[in-house]
Give the backbone structure.
Amino acid sequence: MGGTPPTGAARPGPLVGALALLGVANILGNVVAPALYLLWAVLAVIGLVLLARADGLNRQQWGLGPVHRRAALAALAFAALTAVVMLVGTRLPGVSSAFVDQRVSGMGGGRIAFFALVRAPLGTAVFEEVAFRGILLALFARRFGTVWAVAGSSAAFGAWHILPALGVAAGNAAVVSTLGSDPLWAAIAGVVAAGLAGVFLCLLRIRYDHLIVPVAVHATATSLGYLLAWLVMGS
């Protein structure tokens, strides 16, 4: 993808449609029917793939071509590094409180296993990487070039986290103690943090020319985040 020049003839419809589709999926998954989040994720991916096809993009252009050895090794290395950083964080006094999340309080083993093994890696990591570092990044790049594609995709990823950030503010004592009880600050912090994470994940996608690397990082962070929060809350 790197160095791909924008094509001025590209129609705006698929990009606008992708952004609108993600907006609807976000509201459905966070406000209207959160229990059906996986369904909304599947339907959104189907819609995004159809829009990408309509725009003339193939699987390789949105990061799902053949997996080369270099990308596979990078995925393992970055996933391991992410896990180590998170595990060390649970032992640091100033960081461990961030894992105290009331949203996992009362969850049984089966429920947390579902979140850590299904909901987080598939419904969050795979879905969001295909959406933001895959199809949306490719749609932006075709029109505006790689640099603006990273900026656009990451800004959209930040906006995607406004509603989840409000939920984190309600259930995470560390967030409340740092930002206060005003949900506006939690939303702003969530957008900025997610946007910066989006830039990093975009760079991984571009550097290794495949979604497997950002998916590995994202899946490790979200799955381990649920598990560590559950363990911390239960200890």
